[in-house]
Amino acid sequence: MQKFTRLDGLVAPLDRANVDTDAIIPKQFLKSIKRTGFGPNLFDAWRYLDHGEPGMDNARRPINPDFFLNQARYKGTEIFLARKNFGCGSSREHAPWALIDYGFRCVIAPSFADIFFGNCYKNGLLPVVLAEAEVDALFYDCASFPGFRLVVDLEQQSVSTTDGSRRYRFEVDPFRKHSLLNGLDEIALTLQHADEIRAFEAARREQFPWLFR
Amino acid sequence: MAQTLYDKLWNSHVVHVDADGTALLYVDRHLVHEVTSPQAYDGLKLAGRKPWRAGSVVATADHNTPTTGWEQGIDGIRDPIARLQVETLDKNMREFGAKVYFPFLDRRQGIVHVIGPENGATLPGMTVVCGDSHTSTHGAFGCLAHGIGTSEVEHVLATQCLITKKMKNMRVLVEGPLARGVTAKDVALAIIGRIGTAGGTGCAIEFAGSAIRSLSMEGRMTLCNMAIEAGARAGMVAVDETTSQYLRGRPFSPAGPEWDQAVAYWSMLRSDPDAKFEREVTLEARAIKPQVTWGTSPEMVVPVDETVPDPDNEKDAVKREGIERALVYMGLKPRTRISDIRLDKVFIGSCTNSRIEDLRSAAAVVKGRRVARNVRLAMVVPGSGLVKAQAEQEGLDRIFIDAGFEWREPGCSMCLAMNADRLEPGERCASTSNRNFEGRQGDGGRTHLVSPAMAAAAAIAGHFVDVRSGF
Q1: Which ipTM did the prediction report?
Q2: A196 and B24: CB-CB below 8 Å?
Q3: CA distance A171 to chain B (A)
Q4: Which stretches within B291-437 are classed as H helix?
């Protein structure tokens, strides 16, 4: 897993609630058998004016100038600011893969859908939940100040403005925090409990043999 | 202490738990399909790991597979990228093994959430996972079943466990008798309309009450399938006589003395009478009417006898914008009567509504009638090869074909349009699937979610119509 410690990044806002993973990465791109290369098709249907298919030269496609990611002020953005229930719908991990591949390292929203939220951590993309009023304030800042940046510090569990004038604290699960700070391989961690898993499995096989036929 | 069904399922699968509540949860059944597994098997290979228990894996190819042209074999998958994905699953199954694999073209191939239950590979008391959000379907059997991401697919393959934390307990009670013509799909949509698409976030939902107990297993699967559309990763229903009757004699169901042993254990898979739920919602079954979604989120739903909402009546600014945007996308005007919405296509299928009971209910509406002339395509995609064979044995295929429907091969099909079945921009579809998101059924496509009977009625009338009216 990719580490996440501290990030000072440009913020890009998508002012829309209930953004689903079908929108984040449309299904035609799910045919890939790789984990990378999804960035150019992030929000494909909203970002381009034509219909996208895998294998197209995306640099030559007509872009939707109104879509936020196509605006010069958000070039090089790393922090995604979203509204509530971000990432709802399909469990496709291609959604966080696409966000990461595009260059995002952090998503800030008032709430996330459960599966997407978990998938983010597995890929070093930090999902930060802030209160609705705090997120409102950040949307206001983004609209008002071109080049608006935030500092996200996982160790401190804080999101702050670069001048330090405002600082929001966020909650994070201790295990997930530890894994992300250290970029740990969760499978290796779990396999440290291999004896416990084997013992559990043996007892279960004894009690419910039909589950192991 | 009194326990909920979810508490019992959780407690019986915890291998290890840390002080902060992070647990290793043992996985009994791992369902695998071609779209979310290749990167997981690849990761396993790269790390030099092997599956912990390949015997827990039940696999099939369903998302990319075509619903026509099966006589051409693998060449029937025209899209080379899709074909490579299907062949990659074949290769991974050969290399890593499984309890059973139903490849493309197999007699028992089908949608992963249809084939698990129909083969008895989903059994009460199991933990069931799959790289697919509609894994909640299997909760209908008193299982803890939910979708996972591809990293977790790899983790489960390698360790037979998930790293997870306990969710909250939520109960949705639906009490009383359902009105005639009202199905589990309408119940699911009515619940989502009530609690919203984030209403169950962070929760495992148990569906209970007399209306739920009276549902068939097919109906319970439809309901649990849609739990994720209410934001809940897992939905579940307690085990009862209906559950064990359904499972008796299925290929992977326990048999002989183990059957009795299993049934005795299953009878405990219900919430204790005084168990505590952190959230509880009650609906009166009698008040539920056939439902139709009008927007781009499953919570944008109304009964068939109502109208498309007017955003001016919405006080919340974010919601109002959501309604306005949805109406533009859907090409609908505020206050349009649902029954005035005309359709271009009708899709009966998906892991929500492609089982035999769904096809019977649609066929009963269609029988002896013709698809309306304005409907360009009406298609029925059975959930599996076995469902298809059963339907053909009952003559349902003839009823659909005689009415002008296309009778297709099994698969996910136009639920998510990864194969060739899709809506063209602007086309409007009555669909028995689960998501009406923008572009879900094809770029610019407009999806209205309904029950199989309502979809069938809409195909005949050419517009939405209350299936109870006889229309």
Answers
A1: 0.96
A2: yes
A3: 13
A4: 317-330, 356-366, 385-393, 396-403
In this complex, the residue of B38, B132, B231 whose CB is nearest that of residue A91 is: B132
| Cβ–Cβ under 8 Å, residues B229 and B298 | yes
How many alpha carbons lie under 13 Å from residue A193 in its C-beta half-sphere?
A: 23
The residues that bridge with B59 in the sheet, in sequence order, are B32, B101
Give the span between the Cα atoms of B139 and B202, in whole angstroms. 16
* DSSP-based three-state secondary structure for B217: helix
Q: Which residue of B has its CA nearest to A93?
A: B149
User: Please, which residues have CB within 8 angstroms of residue A203's CB and are 6 or more apart in sequence?
Assistant: none
Cβ neighbourhood burial of A136 (10 Å; 0-12, 13-18, 19+): middle
Closest CA in chain A for residue B160: A197
* Distance, CA of B198 to CA of A88 (rounded, Å): 8
Q: Which residues pair with B293 in a beta bridge?
A: B301
Contact between A210 and B88 using a beta-carbon 8 Å cutoff: no
Q: Of the candidates A22, A34, A175, which has its C-beta nearest B22's C-beta?
A: A175
Using a cut of 0.90, tell me whether the model's pTM lies above it: yes
d(CA B223, CA B206): 11
- In total, chain B counts a number of residues equal to 471
- The answer to whether the beta carbons of residues B45 and B74 sit under 8 Å apart is no
Report the C-alpha gap between A49 and B265 in whole angstroms: 57
Q: Taking CB atoms and an 8 Å limit, are A85 and B198 in contact across chains?
A: yes
Vertex B399 angle, CA B393 and B400, to 5°: 105
Residue with tokens 């079908």: A22
Neighbours of A143 (CB within 10 A): 11
Q: Scan for tokens 């806002």, then name that residue.
A: A13
Q: pLDDT of chain B along its 471 residues, tens only?
A: 999 999 999 999 999 999 999 999 999 999 999 999 999 999 999 999 999 999 999 999 999 999 999 999 999 999 999 999 999 999 999 999 999 999 999 999 999 999 999 999 999 999 999 999 999 999 999 999 999 999 999 999 999 999 999 999 999 999 999 999 999 999 999 999 999 999 999 999 999 999 999 999 999 999 999 999 999 999 999 999 999 999 999 999 999 999 999 999 999 999 999 999 999 999 999 999 999 999 999 999 999 999 999 999 999 888 899 999 999 999 999 999 999 999 999 999 999 999 999 999 999 999 999 999 999 999 999 999 999 999 999 999 999 999 999 999 999 999 999 999 999 999 999 999 999 999 999 999 999 999 999 999 999 999 999 999 988
